Amino acid sequence: MTSELDIFVGNTTLIDEDVYRLWLDGYSVTDAVALRVRSGILEQTGATAAVLQSDTMDHYRTFHMLERLLHAPPKLLHQLIFQIPPSRQALLIERYYAFDEAFVWEVLGKKLSKGTKKDLDDISTKTGITLKSCRRQFDNFKRVFKVVEEMRGSLVDNIQQHFLLSDRLARDYAAIVFFANNRFETGKKKLQYLSFGDFAFCAELMIQNGTLGAVDSQMDDMDMDLDKEFLQDMKELKVLAADKDLLDLHKSLVCTALLGKLGVFSEMEANFKNLSRGLVNVAAKLTHNKDVRDLFVDLVEKFVEPCRSDHWPLSDVRFFLNQYSASVHSLDGFRHQALWDRYMGTLRGCLLRLYHD
Amino acid sequence: MPGKLKVKIVAGRHLPVMDRASDLTDAFVEVKFGNTTFKTDVYLKSLNPQWNSEWFKFEVDDEDLQDEPLQITVLDHDTYSANDAIGKVYIDIDPLLYSEAATVISGWFPIYDTIHGIRGEINVVVKVDLFNDLNRFRQSSCGVKFFCTTSIPKCYRAVIIHGFVEELVVNEDPEYQWIDRIRTPRASNEARQRLISLMSGELQRKIGLKVLEMRGNAVVGYLQCFDLEGESGLVVRAIGTACTLDKLSSPAAFLPACNSPSKEMKEIPFNEDPNPNTHSSGPSTPLKNQTYSFSPSKSYSRQSSSSDTDLSLTPKTGMGSGSAGKEGGPFKALLRQQTQSALEQREFPFFTLTAFPPGFLVHVGGVVSARSVKLLDRIHNPDEPETRDAWWAEIRQEIKSHAKALGCHAVVGYSESTSICEEVCILSASGTAAVLNPRFLQDGTVEGCLEQRLEENLSTRCGFCHIPYDELNMPFPAHLTYCYNCRKQKVPDVLFTTIDLPTDATVIGKGCLIQARLCRLKKKAQAEANATAISNLLPFMEYEVHTQLMNKLKLKGMNALFGLRIQITVGENMLMGLASATGVYLAALPTPGGIQIAGKTPNDGSYEQHISHMQKKINDTIAKNKELYEINPPEISEEIIGSPIPEPRQRSRLLRSQSESSDEVTELDLSHGKKDAFVLEIDDTDAMEDVHSLLTDVPPPSGFYSCNTEIMPGINNWTSEIQMFTSVRVIRLSSLNLTNQALNKNFNDLCENLLKSLYFKLRSMIPCCLCHVNFTVSLPEDELIQVTVTAVAITFDKNQALQTTKTSVEKSLQRASTDNEELLQFPLELCSDSLPSHPFPPVKEHLESASSNSGIPAAQRAVTVEKASPVGDGNFRNRSAPPCANSTVGVVKMTPLSFIPGAKITKYLGIINMFFIRETTSLREEGGVSGFLHAFIAEVFAMVRAHVAALGGNAVVSYIMKQCVFMENPNKNQAQCLINVSGDAVVFVRESDLEVVSSQQPTTNCQSSCTEGEVTT
């Protein structure tokens, strides 16, 4: 006796969250059944392995049919074939677009092209995530990227509107799209200690302050690209490092203000010029695409690592950065206050987030 | 020219890409009705076209309005080559033809293609302007309402139940026409879909005419079926029960004035027919006779006096006193005469209803069934319905005579079915012989006072169990005892019926699904030889099915079966029998005896030991089942009963017959001769197998119950979560081990595994009950067995269930008073003591829980209200409102039941009767047979829901998948499936929403009536 055909169709589509997770994780039906058996479900329910097999197949088939709709989530809401309660629809979408931290690490800042797709095999081996799941995650990134690429308006809003994701997930996708578009280097060994959350945080700050949409909401342009004009203007900040008088004055202002308030005062005093030069140079170099890509590497190299080697506590870093950025207002010879504030506003936030072990 | 049909094509969405170059589509729409076609403009380059067309107007006869479907075709415009069809939508406009149903059809319909499935959606608005037509000679029957529901629909009251209507139409099957060889599969499928749609319309119209002639205004329990006879044709046939229904206005309109039944009776003549449109012409117009000439059974006009003479077993009414009690006697006799005269006017006193207004059903005799084997290639004139009409008439005649033999005048819960394999066709009919109260059958001519006295007498809860036949002249050997409830009348020890459990029946414990499954191998043969072989096998199959049912019933410790449905399926090389029913313990019937096992070789010691071991196992199972289903009947000492009760015995109540083409009727005694105790003799391995198979049926996991009736006896606290589903399984038998035994085992495993899978899948709904579990078996090929199951899972409240068990007997004795029911005008409320379905739930719930000392009414109510929301639409309303309210899809519930728990049906919008064909030539690409059928069934559900939503409804009740014919050819990568579904589109309102409304009504009224109800219980 062999089963030729075995289906179950409910008027309300049954969604088993556990099976959905297994499916999303890219397990084959056989593996999924084995994993379910191991979860002890047979003992709980008194079912047989055959029942489990049939149930898993059914769910997989349903998910397979739903996948087409999940590629354009608004379709899932409007379609008539599957009657799914809204809360379940939201769950299906949210889980489908969720991604693994380990995976996103590997592709963050990379071009979402076919070439990278070939690397998925390697990523799968490296991370232990099944190739199928890697594909889904990669395709999700690419799909979102493609849809919002040419769109005007807020990046997060666009993603939310077209993919019906939760606020949190939409922000993450905004970061991924932003990184992919600007091709920030994240793969260097130096950056290994950072989490996706750190990058996403920085991306959000940069979208808020460093893109075209940020300065002029009237312009209503895209959030994806950094403001070229702003990057160009930042060359002007170079004087802060190049002009020795200005640098000395800046240092004395900061040191006076922080005297007695900083645990690592002497280290700060000794390193001030190096640190300041580093930060100013990062800003001034951003006109070149390559330097934009290396932004995070530079920040870690020029600021995070020196401070860390001197064991600055985070609170001291905060004090320092606040004072460092505020003191510039007292530099009489410096005319680009607004520019400086825009730059340091973003940078301070990023550095504080990046500064950890 | 009495009607104007208006159609407007608004927009399309999610269309498929038809032009690969642009990834877009240039779509336009053809709207066709009859022979008239209109076209919209081409909407260039869009997958979401906005046609916003003018109103296309069709001026048509109402006859055409009834027969023809509206056909909407979406096409892709192509300048250089032929336009490509994207897909079609067929809209049945029948619901627009009766005044009380839908007024407009408007909504998104899936665009369906028989090869590609659903391809986008189209928004259509349809309206009908009907002109009042005073032409007395018309052929149409607009205005007659149709219901699939096999009880009086919830917002109606039955004034008169007229009786049986049937009709049958035949046509050539397009699939077998010569042209099919040259046309595409798509064209062939569409021709078939369209033809069946036309035939259904015609059939419905003809049945409507019969109803009008009987002066009815509705058909209830309408069951339409297709017989794909192959070469000899395509038959569409339907049966139903003609009624005069009265629409109930809102419950508030019924003031205490109509408290007494007699008053209500007097009102009948005045509001008999609220709709002037439905008035039929006089009974003897020549044209009408002409329409009738298609059918041999002129149900109404034919005089009955002749038809009964040949039946020797007609009960003598004069002897009624023998079986009736002292007081009941004269009334019973009177009643019998009345009923008889009322029913004798009909050729077939059959009713397709399975649940009845209170007091309608007086006695139940037992199941009657008839089968007949026919050869389709012997039909002389295959294109005409005469032969098939004669076949069915013959079978119905048999059923009628069986009912007579049981002392009954009527057959209720009547249904007909066929099974076809090549040129052999088995016709089956079955029902429950019954004695009915004439009150509902006549035009209110019965004297009021007599009526009331009868009412008092008959409204005892055990009345229907009392034997209708004469004790001294029993049609078969049976064992009778005095009724365990009233102690006055005789009852049988076991009762089998095809109807639902009457609302007022007293049941102890819970019920359960009982199935008998059987396979018999048969030699492949041709024509006559084949028919004879099948005819010879049938009696054995019936006998065995019946024995299995009886054994399983006893094993469950129960004494009655409801909703019995025996399906015999014929295949090339085997016959399959599947009987499903719901077993219960009726308090009025005696406790069933156990099962004794006897060996044939008593000298063998080890054998003896084995036997006793088996016996112990059986006894343990019975004890366990009694506990599981909470069967603890109150102990009754024998003195009280008054008559010595001998050893409990079982007797068959199933009278059946079968005949082959030669019309020879064989009577089969299924009652195990004169044996006293129910003994299973184990004389060979076969018998051993049987006993084993008895014990292998696994009870459902805890928290699960199942039944094939509308509701589960013993559970009455349904919450509102429902899940209707269809599950299909096909197994391939390995041809090596084809013995009867192996076959039986395979089939048994198939059914058991299927049930196990269902329990597993629906485990999140626990505690829940699978209701209306409907198994269908077919044998699509030599070694394939296909089982299709449709059912609904309904959750219930565990806390209340526990409470019920505590006071199980007490509670089950409780029931809403008759007065209360009459007042509220819900004569067919199927669970009169089920709280959610009661029109005034909060008050009643409060009272009831207070009366049963639960002490936590408020908390309980909170639970019920909360439970109502997670079903989806609760959330839905809250969520969908803000961003895209206009675009989200409304929830449409589907259920095979006639009601929706926790809700009240406020309007019936018309019947849904849809037929779809799906074919593929890329089976593998679509996920194999499972993927193909899974997608197709999901699409069918979607199309049903879309039609209901377009009618303005939010649910389908009495939903049934009547046919699911699946054929595959994996070698050619092809498969085809035909599905036929039907149901009633309705609007329902959640009772929690209703509370707001009802609180504005004079609550004192209902409160007093409820209190009254408490007093009388």
From TrEMBL, chain A:
GO biological process: platelet aggregation
Pfam family, one: FIBP
Molecular functions (GO terms): fibroblast growth factor binding
GO CC annotation terms, alphabetical: nucleus
InterPro entries: FIBP
PANTHER family to which the protein is assigned, alphabetical: ACIDIC FIBROBLAST GROWTH FACTOR INTRACELLULAR BINDING PROTEIN, ACIDIC FIBROBLAST GROWTH FACTOR INTRACELLULAR-BINDING PROTEIN
Name this polypeptide is given: FGF1 intracellular binding protein
Lineage: Eukaryota, Metazoa, Chordata, Craniata, Vertebrata
